[in-house]
Amino acid sequence: MTPAGSRKGTGGLSRGAGRRGKRSRSRQLIADRAYNNVRNDTFALPVWKLGYTTIYDLHPNRRGMHPGPEGTHTFWIDGVLYADSLPEGLYDLDPIAIDVSKDDRERVERRHQARQAYAYIPHDARHPDESRSYRGPAAQPGRLRCPNNPKSMRAPQSVPTTSCTRGEECGCGHTITLYDSDYPDMRMPFQHGTLACEMSYHRRVGIESVFADLKQNRLHVHRGYFRGFGIGRYTVLVGFTFAALTCSSCTTGSASVCVSIRGAGSSVSRNRCAQSVGVVSQRDRAKSPR
Ligand SMILES: [Zn+2]
Question: What's the 168 CA to ligand 1 centre distance in angstroms?
Protein backbone atom coordinates (compact mmCIF):
# COMPACT_ATOMS: atom_id res chain seq x y z
CA MET A 1 0.00 0.00 0.00
CA THR A 2 1.03 3.56 -0.61
CA PRO A 3 -0.54 6.75 0.72
CA ALA A 4 -3.24 8.36 -1.41
CA GLY A 5 -1.80 10.95 -3.78
CA SER A 6 1.61 9.31 -4.07
CA ARG A 7 3.05 8.54 -7.47
CA LYS A 8 1.40 5.66 -9.34
CA GLY A 9 4.73 4.31 -10.53
CA THR A 10 6.04 4.08 -6.97
CA GLY A 11 2.98 2.15 -5.79
CA GLY A 12 2.87 -0.19 -8.78
CA LEU A 13 6.59 -0.88 -8.58
CA SER A 14 6.54 -1.69 -4.88
CA ARG A 15 3.70 -4.15 -5.51
CA GLY A 16 5.65 -5.84 -8.29
CA ALA A 17 8.84 -5.97 -6.24
CA GLY A 18 6.97 -7.52 -3.32
CA ARG A 19 5.60 -10.30 -5.50
CA ARG A 20 9.01 -11.11 -6.94
CA GLY A 21 10.52 -11.22 -3.47
CA LYS A 22 8.13 -14.04 -2.58
CA ARG A 23 9.33 -16.16 -5.52
CA SER A 24 6.03 -15.67 -7.25
CA ARG A 25 5.36 -17.35 -10.56
CA SER A 26 3.87 -14.13 -11.89
CA ARG A 27 5.51 -13.13 -15.13
CA GLN A 28 3.09 -10.55 -16.49
CA LEU A 29 1.98 -7.25 -15.06
CA ILE A 30 -1.28 -5.75 -16.35
CA ALA A 31 -1.37 -1.97 -16.03
CA ASP A 32 -4.34 0.28 -16.77
CA ARG A 33 -4.29 3.52 -18.74
CA ALA A 34 -3.13 5.57 -15.76
CA TYR A 35 0.29 3.99 -16.21
CA ASN A 36 0.50 5.30 -19.78
CA ASN A 37 1.47 8.63 -18.28
CA VAL A 38 4.04 7.38 -15.78
CA ARG A 39 7.66 8.06 -16.62
CA ASN A 40 9.54 5.02 -17.90
CA ASP A 41 12.31 5.34 -15.30
CA THR A 42 9.80 5.17 -12.45
CA PHE A 43 7.70 2.22 -13.63
CA ALA A 44 8.20 0.41 -16.95
CA LEU A 45 11.99 0.06 -16.84
CA PRO A 46 12.25 -1.07 -13.18
CA VAL A 47 9.35 -3.50 -13.73
CA TRP A 48 11.11 -5.05 -16.73
CA LYS A 49 14.29 -5.39 -14.69
CA LEU A 50 12.30 -7.36 -12.13
CA GLY A 51 11.51 -9.84 -14.91
CA TYR A 52 7.92 -8.88 -15.70
CA THR A 53 6.32 -8.54 -19.10
CA THR A 54 3.99 -5.55 -19.18
CA ILE A 55 0.52 -5.52 -20.72
CA TYR A 56 -1.11 -2.15 -21.27
CA ASP A 57 -4.36 -0.66 -22.39
CA LEU A 58 -3.06 2.13 -24.59
CA HIS A 59 -4.81 5.47 -24.46
CA PRO A 60 -5.62 6.83 -27.94
CA ASN A 61 -3.23 9.72 -27.30
CA ARG A 62 -0.37 7.30 -26.73
CA ARG A 63 -0.94 5.34 -29.91
CA GLY A 64 0.69 6.24 -33.21
CA MET A 65 3.62 5.75 -35.55
CA HIS A 66 7.29 6.43 -34.81
CA PRO A 67 10.45 5.79 -36.83
CA GLY A 68 12.34 2.57 -36.07
CA PRO A 69 16.08 2.22 -35.41
CA GLU A 70 18.12 4.22 -37.94
CA GLY A 71 18.96 2.47 -41.18
CA THR A 72 16.71 -0.55 -40.56
CA HIS A 73 13.77 0.48 -42.79
CA THR A 74 11.33 -0.13 -40.01
CA PHE A 75 8.81 1.88 -38.00
CA TRP A 76 6.83 1.50 -34.81
CA ILE A 77 3.05 1.35 -34.60
CA ASP A 78 1.53 1.19 -31.12
CA GLY A 79 4.69 -0.29 -29.64
CA VAL A 80 5.26 -2.97 -32.32
CA LEU A 81 8.10 -2.77 -34.86
CA TYR A 82 7.12 -3.37 -38.50
CA ALA A 83 9.00 -3.65 -41.78
CA ASP A 84 8.48 -0.70 -44.10
CA SER A 85 6.85 -3.06 -46.61
CA LEU A 86 3.66 -2.94 -44.52
CA PRO A 87 0.83 -1.77 -46.83
CA GLU A 88 -0.50 1.67 -45.93
CA GLY A 89 -4.00 0.27 -45.58
CA LEU A 90 -2.84 -1.59 -42.48
CA TYR A 91 -1.21 1.38 -40.75
CA ASP A 92 -4.19 2.60 -38.74
CA LEU A 93 -6.40 -0.18 -37.40
CA ASP A 94 -9.06 0.24 -34.77
CA PRO A 95 -8.68 -1.94 -31.70
CA ILE A 96 -11.26 -4.68 -31.19
CA ALA A 97 -14.24 -3.31 -29.30
CA ILE A 98 -16.59 -5.18 -26.99
CA ASP A 99 -19.81 -3.46 -28.04
CA VAL A 100 -19.81 -4.53 -31.70
CA SER A 101 -21.17 -7.57 -33.47
CA LYS A 102 -19.29 -10.82 -33.63
CA ASP A 103 -18.80 -10.39 -37.38
CA ASP A 104 -17.22 -6.97 -36.90
CA ARG A 105 -14.91 -8.32 -34.24
CA GLU A 106 -13.79 -11.09 -36.57
CA ARG A 107 -13.27 -8.64 -39.43
CA VAL A 108 -11.09 -6.36 -37.31
CA GLU A 109 -9.14 -9.35 -36.00
CA ARG A 110 -8.44 -10.53 -39.57
CA ARG A 111 -6.97 -7.13 -40.43
CA HIS A 112 -4.80 -7.21 -37.32
CA GLN A 113 -3.56 -10.67 -38.24
CA ALA A 114 -2.75 -9.41 -41.74
CA ARG A 115 -0.62 -6.68 -40.14
CA GLN A 116 0.95 -9.17 -37.74
CA ALA A 117 2.67 -10.89 -40.69
CA TYR A 118 4.85 -7.76 -41.16
CA ALA A 119 5.83 -7.45 -37.49
CA TYR A 120 9.19 -8.08 -35.86
CA ILE A 121 8.90 -10.83 -33.26
CA PRO A 122 11.24 -11.75 -30.37
CA HIS A 123 14.09 -14.00 -31.52
CA ASP A 124 15.47 -14.90 -28.09
CA ALA A 125 15.13 -14.09 -24.41
CA ARG A 126 15.96 -10.74 -22.89
CA HIS A 127 19.70 -10.46 -22.17
CA PRO A 128 21.27 -9.15 -18.93
CA ASP A 129 22.46 -6.05 -20.81
CA GLU A 130 18.77 -5.13 -21.38
CA SER A 131 18.86 -6.07 -25.06
CA ARG A 132 16.74 -8.52 -27.02
CA SER A 133 16.90 -9.66 -30.65
CA TYR A 134 13.85 -9.37 -32.89
CA ARG A 135 13.44 -11.23 -36.17
CA GLY A 136 12.04 -9.61 -39.29
CA PRO A 137 9.07 -11.04 -41.17
CA ALA A 138 11.13 -12.43 -44.08
CA ALA A 139 13.96 -13.79 -41.89
CA GLN A 140 13.82 -17.59 -41.67
CA PRO A 141 11.43 -19.10 -40.89
CA GLY A 142 9.67 -16.41 -42.87
CA ARG A 143 6.12 -15.16 -42.54
CA LEU A 144 6.31 -13.14 -45.76
CA ARG A 145 7.69 -13.58 -49.26
CA CYS A 146 10.06 -10.72 -50.07
CA PRO A 147 11.97 -10.50 -53.42
CA ASN A 148 15.03 -9.20 -51.57
CA ASN A 149 15.17 -12.34 -49.43
CA PRO A 150 15.39 -15.26 -51.91
CA LYS A 151 14.84 -17.97 -49.28
CA SER A 152 11.55 -16.39 -48.28
CA MET A 153 10.31 -16.70 -51.89
CA ARG A 154 10.42 -20.50 -51.55
CA ALA A 155 7.42 -20.30 -49.23
CA PRO A 156 4.05 -21.34 -50.73
CA GLN A 157 1.88 -18.85 -52.60
CA SER A 158 -0.51 -18.74 -49.66
CA VAL A 159 2.10 -16.73 -47.74
CA PRO A 160 1.70 -12.95 -48.34
CA THR A 161 4.15 -11.45 -50.84
CA THR A 162 5.45 -7.93 -50.24
CA SER A 163 5.57 -5.21 -52.88
CA CYS A 164 9.31 -4.67 -52.29
CA THR A 165 11.42 -3.96 -55.40
CA ARG A 166 14.30 -6.36 -55.95
CA GLY A 167 17.59 -4.59 -55.27
CA GLU A 168 16.09 -1.79 -53.18
CA GLU A 169 16.69 -2.02 -49.47
CA CYS A 170 13.75 -2.98 -47.30
CA GLY A 171 13.20 -3.92 -43.68
CA CYS A 172 11.84 -7.44 -44.20
CA GLY A 173 14.82 -9.70 -43.55
CA HIS A 174 16.80 -8.08 -40.70
CA THR A 175 17.40 -9.25 -37.17
CA ILE A 176 17.39 -6.18 -34.96
CA THR A 177 18.54 -5.68 -31.40
CA LEU A 178 16.14 -3.62 -29.30
CA TYR A 179 16.82 -2.29 -25.82
CA ASP A 180 14.65 -1.72 -22.78
CA SER A 181 14.64 1.97 -23.59
CA ASP A 182 12.77 1.35 -26.88
CA TYR A 183 9.16 2.17 -26.01
CA PRO A 184 8.88 0.11 -22.82
CA ASP A 185 5.61 1.89 -22.05
CA MET A 186 3.95 0.34 -25.13
CA ARG A 187 5.71 -2.94 -25.95
CA MET A 188 3.63 -6.04 -25.26
CA PRO A 189 3.77 -9.73 -26.22
CA PHE A 190 1.08 -9.05 -28.85
CA GLN A 191 -0.27 -6.25 -31.01
CA HIS A 192 -2.47 -3.76 -29.22
CA GLY A 193 -6.12 -4.12 -30.21
CA THR A 194 -6.05 -7.80 -31.13
CA LEU A 195 -8.18 -10.56 -29.68
CA ALA A 196 -5.14 -11.98 -27.86
CA CYS A 197 -4.45 -8.59 -26.32
CA GLU A 198 -8.07 -8.17 -25.25
CA MET A 199 -8.22 -11.61 -23.65
CA SER A 200 -5.02 -11.02 -21.75
CA TYR A 201 -5.84 -7.51 -20.57
CA HIS A 202 -9.36 -8.43 -19.50
CA ARG A 203 -7.93 -10.64 -16.76
CA ARG A 204 -7.68 -7.34 -14.98
CA VAL A 205 -11.48 -7.06 -15.08
CA GLY A 206 -11.62 -9.96 -12.66
CA ILE A 207 -9.51 -7.99 -10.20
CA GLU A 208 -11.75 -4.97 -10.65
CA SER A 209 -14.73 -7.19 -9.76
CA VAL A 210 -13.06 -7.97 -6.45
CA PHE A 211 -12.61 -4.25 -5.81
CA ALA A 212 -16.28 -3.67 -6.64
CA ASP A 213 -17.25 -6.35 -4.14
CA LEU A 214 -15.06 -4.66 -1.59
CA LYS A 215 -16.49 -1.18 -2.15
CA GLN A 216 -20.13 -1.81 -2.88
CA ASN A 217 -21.44 -5.24 -3.73
CA ARG A 218 -20.50 -7.04 -0.52
CA LEU A 219 -18.68 -4.67 1.79
CA HIS A 220 -18.77 -0.88 1.89
CA VAL A 221 -15.17 0.16 2.19
CA HIS A 222 -14.94 3.89 1.51
CA ARG A 223 -13.15 6.90 2.91
CA GLY A 224 -13.41 6.78 6.67
CA TYR A 225 -14.04 3.04 6.84
CA PHE A 226 -10.78 2.76 8.78
CA ARG A 227 -9.99 5.42 11.34
CA GLY A 228 -6.42 5.35 12.45
CA PHE A 229 -2.93 6.48 11.55
CA GLY A 230 -0.03 4.72 9.93
CA ILE A 231 0.27 2.71 6.75
CA GLY A 232 1.15 -0.38 8.78
CA ARG A 233 -2.15 -0.35 10.66
CA TYR A 234 -4.08 0.27 7.44
CA THR A 235 -2.35 -2.64 5.76
CA VAL A 236 -3.29 -5.02 8.56
CA LEU A 237 -6.89 -3.82 8.55
CA VAL A 238 -7.17 -4.19 4.80
CA GLY A 239 -5.95 -7.74 5.24
CA PHE A 240 -8.75 -8.43 7.73
CA THR A 241 -11.23 -6.78 5.40
CA PHE A 242 -10.23 -9.01 2.51
CA ALA A 243 -10.63 -11.98 4.82
CA ALA A 244 -14.12 -10.74 5.63
CA LEU A 245 -14.86 -10.42 1.94
CA THR A 246 -13.70 -13.95 1.32
CA CYS A 247 -15.87 -15.27 4.12
CA SER A 248 -18.85 -13.05 3.43
CA SER A 249 -20.68 -15.78 1.52
CA CYS A 250 -20.62 -17.85 4.68
CA THR A 251 -23.14 -16.64 7.28
CA THR A 252 -21.36 -18.11 10.24
CA GLY A 253 -17.96 -16.84 9.16
CA SER A 254 -19.10 -13.24 8.73
CA ALA A 255 -19.76 -12.50 12.38
CA SER A 256 -16.40 -13.72 13.56
CA VAL A 257 -14.55 -11.62 10.99
CA CYS A 258 -16.39 -8.49 12.14
CA VAL A 259 -15.09 -9.09 15.63
CA SER A 260 -11.59 -9.47 14.28
CA ILE A 261 -11.71 -6.14 12.45
CA ARG A 262 -12.82 -4.18 15.47
CA GLY A 263 -10.38 -5.99 17.71
CA ALA A 264 -7.45 -4.98 15.50
CA GLY A 265 -7.88 -1.30 16.32
CA SER A 266 -10.37 -0.11 13.72
CA SER A 267 -13.23 2.09 14.80
CA VAL A 268 -15.58 0.53 12.30
CA SER A 269 -19.01 0.91 13.80
CA ARG A 270 -20.93 -2.14 14.87
CA ASN A 271 -23.88 -1.08 12.74
CA ARG A 272 -21.82 -0.60 9.61
CA CYS A 273 -20.09 -3.90 10.03
CA ALA A 274 -23.34 -5.68 10.66
CA GLN A 275 -24.92 -3.90 7.74
CA SER A 276 -22.10 -4.58 5.29
CA VAL A 277 -21.87 -8.25 6.05
CA GLY A 278 -25.42 -8.91 7.12
CA VAL A 279 -26.97 -7.62 3.91
CA VAL A 280 -24.72 -9.83 1.92
CA SER A 281 -25.55 -12.78 4.08
CA GLN A 282 -29.24 -12.31 3.48
CA ARG A 283 -28.73 -11.86 -0.22
CA ASP A 284 -26.54 -14.90 -0.46
CA ARG A 285 -29.05 -16.84 1.52
CA ALA A 286 -31.72 -15.82 -0.97
CA LYS A 287 -29.52 -16.90 -3.87
CA SER A 288 -28.48 -20.19 -2.37
CA PRO A 289 -30.44 -23.27 -3.46
CA ARG A 290 -32.81 -24.63 -0.95
ZN1 LIG B 1 11.12 -6.58 -48.37
Answer: 8
